[in-house]
Amino acid sequence: MQAIVGSGGLEHIDVECLPAKLHNRPALIAPEVRARLDRLAQQGRTYEQILLGYGDCGSAGAIDDLCAEFERAHAAGDGPSMTRVPGAHCYEFFATAPRFDEMSEAEPATFYLTDYLARHFDLLVWQGLGIADHPELAELYFGNYRRVVLLTQTPDGAQRARIEACARAGADRLGLPLEIVETGYGELETTLTSVAAPGRSPVPSELAAPRRSPVPPELAAPRRSDEHQAAV
Amino acid sequence: MADTATVDSADADEDIDLSALDDDDLIAQMHDDLYDGLGPEIVEGTELLLGRGWGADKVLNEALVEAMRIVGIDFRDGILFVPEVLLAANAMKAGMAVLRPLLAETGAEPIGKIVIGTVKGDIHDIGKNLVGMMLEGAGFEVVDLGINTDVDEFLAALAEHQPDILGMSALLTTTMPYMKVVVDTLIEQGLRDDYLVIVGGAPLNQEFGEAVGADAYCRDAAVAAETATDLIKARRAAAA
User: Fold this and answer.
1) Is the pTM of this model over 0.90?
2) Core-most of A104, A160, B67, B69, by most CB within 10 Å?
3) What was the pLDDT predicted at A6?
4) Which one of B37, B87, B173 has the shortest CB-CB distance to A56?
5) What is the pLDDT of residues B189-202, one digit of tens each?
6) B125 to A144: CB separation less than 8 angstroms, yes or no
7) 3-state SS record for chain B
8) Do B203 and A105 lie within an 8 Å CB cutoff?
9) What mean pLDDT comes out for the span A23-40?
């Protein structure tokens, strides 16, 4: 999300990042989002609209419930509008829903990596799931998986090669073959630009169906100010 | 787990001599050991209790199932997370391996039979396996169909095993709607009333359980075992 915002034209958007490891404890995501927003509000940073860079991400609807709570308050004239990126998984929106559904149907036993997750595989997967301390857990977590798919946001080049090497090392640790699919930023980019564009509505409600996942949880909040107020 | 802790084996500098503990302290220590995922200690404690004349079912219920119930509560309350629960389950599995042949020898009738499986498109089985273990601990005969189970496989297993209960699990919001496919097929074939249906999985809730036409939604493995037991008792009482 920071990369998209940094690519130009979206300078009126603030990006706040929450720890990626929350994905290993998804029940904590919604409370942590709320806590961060509360803290920002206490700092006087108020916004017209907030986009959560999460899918449902295993929160069992808690993220959607939080968005709905904000939407109700917003409709009553109190506080910002808030929505999230559509889809069950935050890695799904890189691939876009139709392509992700196709891949999942072709092989349900797929463990997905993004660039971020590949780079931080050891911290978020190996250590985060307790496998580093208890190697016997690897089979319990990943015994049913048949492949790893890297959904990469990076075009061919030196940086892509480094990310692929990280993904391959992760797949090797899991004893699974690696496939690489270049996706770019997919629905994350289109959603962010749609929400940020002046006069545009946020995420279409029919796309905001709950589903679930792991990756960098980020939270983009267009800042309320005179010059940027019209942006979202 | 403050209610059962007597000695924290994880922090102890020296090994605890389980054989030196009286029964009550040994049970409490086994609760701690299972909580901490210490399989060898659970096996040792199980064998000690059996050696003291405890029945296998008593060891199972008072030492293993009760400890796993506490693990389930602390998982639900956010005190424990998946890795710790898996380690605890592995410890329970080690104790079950000692007890299972002894339980079979008793010839006691199971409280009921249940067919369980993770639904089509879903390969996650950690929760389902925990449910299977807790159901077995509660005295059920468990037929586990594994992962990625389609409606035909569920129906074939129901026909073959004639269980009291069908249990379905899903971890993904994309796969959990398949539970309704199975229930609707049961209805279409006039089989729905032949079986109790329970459902569970991280993204599910009570509302979803009702929407797919299940008899019960179970929020965790311990609740699944309790719910299955209650449903069977209620059905049998109604039939009496």
Assistant:
1) no
2) B67
3) 77
4) B173
5) 999 999 999 999 98
6) yes
7) CCCCCCCCCCCCCCCCCHHHCCHHHHHHHHHHHHHCCCHHHHHHHHHHHHHCCCCHHHHHHHHHHHHHHHHHHHHHCCCCCHHHHHHHHHHHHHHHHHHHHHHHHHCCCCCEEEEEEEECCCCCCHHHHHHHHHHHHCCEEEEECCCCECHHHHHHHHHHHCCCEEEEECCCCCCCCHHHHHHHHHHHCCCHHHCEEEEECCCCCHHHHHHCCCCEEECCHHHHHHHHHHHHHHHHHHHC
8) no
9) 92
Question: Between chains, do B148 and A108 touch, taking CB under 8 Å as contact?
Answer: yes
**Mean pLDDT on B73-78:** 86
Q: How confident is the model at residue A197 (pLDDT cuts 50, 70, 90)?
A: low
Better-predicted residue by pLDDT, A6 or A216? A6
Tell me the nearest-neighbour CA distance from B7 into chain A, angstroms. Answer: 23
CB contact under 8 A, A60 and B205: yes
Name which residue leads in pLDDT, A60 or B211: B211
User: Cα distance from B87 to chain A (closest Cα, Å)?
Assistant: 8
pLDDT at B14: 64
